[in-house]
Predict the 3D structure of the following.
Amino acid sequence: MILSKNINILKVEVKCNNMKKMIYLLIFSILFFGCASKPKIKKLDNPNYLNHFYKVQNDSGKIFYILGTIHMSSYPIDELPDSIEQAFIKSDLVYVESKINYDEVQNMQKYLYENSISSINSGECLNIFKNITKQYSSINEEMKVYNAMMINSLATNEVNGELGLSGDLSIDVYISNRIDTDNKAYFELESIEEQYQIIAELSKAAPTYLLKYVEDKEMLKDSIKKIYLSYSEDDLYNNSYNDSDTEIIDFDSKEIEEEFEQYTKILGTNRNDDMISTILNSNSKDTNFIAVGAGHLYGEDGLLSQFEKNGYTITRITE
């Protein structure tokens, strides 16, 4: 929503640079995946961002350059690929999911406790949570005061650390910093509070699914690796991303299947609809740059399809 110092959250020790930064990067991970602790294995290569870069233009000449990002990386980004760099420079307005601001999270932590695991009255969730505490060193029994999305994010964070991945090194953070250094005008598609509200909403609608997804640590590690690697593997990305849930979750349970449908609606469909509506109804410029998680680009309700439905021509930029 990086991690090195020890702090206390409800008397629970969690490794991070500081509270605000850790919490925000965990929340940021909702949009794909997030931060990381000290790498324990050989780092993965940095992703190929050009596989998810598009020029979207209408008949009147209005241009949106769209970059589908991945919210984690193994190494710092020194510079953008040239075509992305030039598009960023020439754009008069930059759209981002949310501008990274660690100070704003101070008043948002209440959302991490809404619909907590201890309050949702589900024996299955409590049993899954107990299994999770046995596999993850960063999660213990006291943490049931948090909601399922927070536990999901903490588990994902721990696995990312073991894979050497960090949200703090992501292209989203790089672009956020470039907005500041280049003094770029920007527009947030979501506020930080809206992202926190999504956490509470997801935890109410799909608590069993969220916990089940991280219950098996090794399967979660394989799934994250597959998503990360497939981001760089051209058109394989979209299929791999969609398939990862079915591989890690047993959908024989009707409850899990229904929760998954709610999860994808809240996390994907609803947000995509809000994003495209905001972009098309905002005071956009002649040339604009959009940086959002790659998962928001594809599919029937993805941003690319919705731009096309609104009369825009889509051109993929590969070099």
Remarks:
- The longest helix spans residues 254-281.
- DSSP finds eleven helices and eight strands in the chain.
- Residues 5-316 form one domain.
